[in-house]
Amino acid sequence: MKSPFDKMSERVTRKLASYSSRRSFLSRFGTAIVAAPAAFPLLPVARAKAAEPQGTPQTDFERYSQDSDPTKCSYWKYCASDGVLCSCCGGGSHTCPPGAEPSPISWIGTCVNPKDGKSYVIAYRDCCGKPVCSAGKSCWCDGADRELPTYRAQLNNDIIWCFGNASATYHCSTAALVGLAG
Amino acid sequence: MKSGLAALALLPVMASADMAPIPAAQQAYLLGCGGCHGIDGVSNSQIVPDLKDQVGWFLNLPEGRRYLARLPNVAFSTNTDQELAALLNYAVFTLGGSSVPQGAKPYTAREVGELRKQPLTETALFQYRSKMVETLVADYRAAPSLRRYGEDMYGSKNQ
Asked: Which CATH number is B22-148 given?
């Protein structure tokens, strides 16, 4: 014998089945699933991403960059420096060692300063006119943030930019701050 | 060139708090063009044409105005028509400074959108430019320094 609860459930179910098809249910359910993430992120990853403060590191380099030692590849301005650091060769992060000339032609990219999380425009200039600097292995860097292949030469770090100098001999690499990115 | 480099060398001593963000058009120029043409529009004048106080001369000729937007690296840039028009206007009217003819109108997004569909890919670019430069120097009193691009270090043509 059916309980009153069973009878009520049966009535409701039969009534529902009489005016709604499975297809319409699936269509409404599907719409709800698609629309839901906009209001309620379903995955914890999406919630974590939304909670990230501005300036959160986006690349491996940015995760480990520092702003205190310009003789290390992890110095923030070197995020796309490819070569030996002039700061290991008697020059600075943005100045050439004595006897080497800065290349007037360079490429320009952006790096994030870990101190304030802001993006800065950086000009990567080579220093030229002397044989390649013989600094230790730790001074040879290969940052590649926001660098593009050689078919986008203006954003490529493999090119030796000394071709615009009287002597095209590569000595070392610098990274000069141009300004705060907009 | 030297003054530009000297100014650049001073920047790293400025505190970041003192810096105003670079305007969008200037930043697009820096990232897309400034490496070769120079931050202030001058680098190696014989290898890369100067823009500073020079590029505006091209607006004297309808063909010259079109030429600037049809140059391959301009036409094929990843910027939208709107962004590219702003970039060109920065390069021509700001960097071009005194070379811009009186009454010259800025590029519009629509104009740039049309011109970039006709990139100069089937042209001997250096000769194309040289012909216009000779007209500009002869008929519009443009600075003869426009001829520097393409000269070798002794002042003679090497292309």
From this structure: 1.10.760.10
